[in-house]
Amino acid sequence: MGARHFLLAVMACAVSASASAQTPKPGSLETYKDWTIGCDNRGRCEAVSLLAEGANWPDNPVMVGIRRDAGPDAEPEVWVGRDTTEPAELSFFIDGRRIAGAIGTDGETKIGGSQAAALAVAMARGFSLEIRSGAKLLGRPSLAGSGAALRYMDAQQGRAGTTTALIAMGPLRATAVRQAPAAPTVTRVPIASAPAPAAFWREELTALGSLTGCAEEMRSAPPPEQHRLAKGEELVLVPCGAGAYNFTAVPVIATGVAGRRAFRFAAFDYLPGWSEDAAHPMLVNASWSPEQSRLESHAKGRGLGDCGGSEAYVWDGVRFRLVEAAAMGECRGAWHWITTWSARVVEKAER
Questions:
Q1: What are the backbone dihedrals phi and psi of residue 292, each rounded to the nearest 5 degrees, phi first?
Q2: Which domains are delineated in the chain?
Q3: How many angstroms separate the most distant Cα atoms in the chain?
Q4: pLDDT on residue 350
Q5: DSSP 3-state assignment of 130?
Q6: What long-range pairs does 286-289 form, CB within 8 A, spacing at least 24?
Q7: Residue 125 CB: number of other CB atoms within 10 A?
Q8: pLDDT score, position 273
Q9: Would you state the pLDDT for residue 125?
Q10: What pLDDT is stored for residue 14 in this prediction?
Q11: What is the mean pLDDT of each run of 10 residues along the chain (351 residues)?
């Protein structure tokens, strides 16, 4: 290979590596019996309890989770979620012995510090958990699989074999734990206040239906949503089907003047979850916030909302960049979804 060809090959590899590095890779989820766990790109892990396999949804569901940031100094946090807004003082009993207590508000109770670490370890080693408020039993979340989930957390965060581990403890000091990865930065373009875009002409609606393949669904749906991005440019959410609790839309970018606008599919650095089987991006229960330049998609696996996936993006002037992703793969009572990706958002400076 000549020097010129070698240089071109090196440059091509560098460009390819750079593009790959910019592509978000949300974390995956693992399930161990009645617990599921996932970690995001910053090494933050969260384990969440599930209903026992085949169990029915209780009248007063109680969910418990354990989260921990990456890094040698990060402490675990135990939280409890309940379907209530009333404050209450909760006590946690493992195999009949009270391990911890805390006051919760707005349906969530959090325990941190050494008390959380002691409770998490007891949960992993125990057989039964009871959450009480005074003499009243609130729930018995299953502990089956909690130990395996926390062992996975130790391994993913590089804590195994160190004194900071919850399960896989060892003699190594906290300094042996790897540092948390830096958060990726996404620059958003502010959306200036402007008059609403002009309604589409009939010919433009026909063009949208042809581009997206949603012409049939558009006939019985409200008009496509139009949101101004910049002068002569707008985000269009084209309705493309609806079910009992999921409403799909195809995001399109329109440019030009009313009556003669051109259309193209919106670009994403990471496609929304429901786009896998489509030849274009597909959003579910989409929402747009111009104040934050933020586009969200939230797909429920079932009406109870205890499984599914969500993504949030910001507009950088060219494409939508992923800033948050969350998922819950098991439809077993966990309405709290686990974060699998996060990024730091900064606003583009004016010139």
A1: -110, 5
A2: 29-182 (2.60.40), 186-347 (no CATH)
A3: 81
A4: 60
A5: strand
A6: 286/237, 286/247, 286/249, 286/251, 288/225, 288/227, 288/235, 288/237
A7: 14
A8: 87
A9: 97
A10: 35
A11: 36 36 89 98 98 88 96 97 88 97 89 96 98 95 98 98 97 97 96 92 98 96 97 97 94 97 97 82 97 97 94 98 97 96 90 51
Residue whose C-alpha is closest to residue 185's, from 65, 319, 314, 278: 314
Contact 210, 262 (CB under 8 A): no
Residue in 143, 135, 137 with CA at minimum distance from that of residue 59 = 137
For the CA atoms of 155, 151, 115, 113, the dihedral, rounded to the nearest 10 degrees, stands at 10
- The per-residue pLDDT for range 168-180, each reduced to its tens digit, is 999 999 999 999 9
Measure the CA–CA gap between 162 and 5, rounded to whole angstroms. 49
Tell me the CA distances in angstroms from 129 to 75, 335, 337, one per residue in order: 21, 20, 22
Bin 214: left if φ > 0, else alpha if -120 < ψ < 50, else beta: alpha
Residue in the block written with tokens 């593009």: 19
| Rounded-to-10 torsion of CA 164, 168, 173, 176 | -100
Global confidence as pTM: 0.90
Q: What is the pLDDT of residues 283-342, one digit of tens each?
A: 999 999 999 999 999 999 999 999 999 999 999 999 999 999 999 999 999 999 999 999
Residue whose structure tokens are 């730091």: 344
User: Whole-angstrom Cα distance, residue 116 to residue 183?
Assistant: 26
Helix (H, G, I), strand (E, B) or coil at 336: coil
- Residue keyed to tokens 């091509």: 12
CA separation (Å) from 164 to 146, 179, 262?
18, 13, 57
Instruction: Give the torsion sign (CA, 117, 122, 125, 130).
Output: negative
| Strand, coil or helix: 285 | coil
Strand (E) or helix (H) holding 227:
strand 225-230
Residue 63 bridge partners (DSSP)? 81
Gyration radius of the chain's alpha carbons: 24
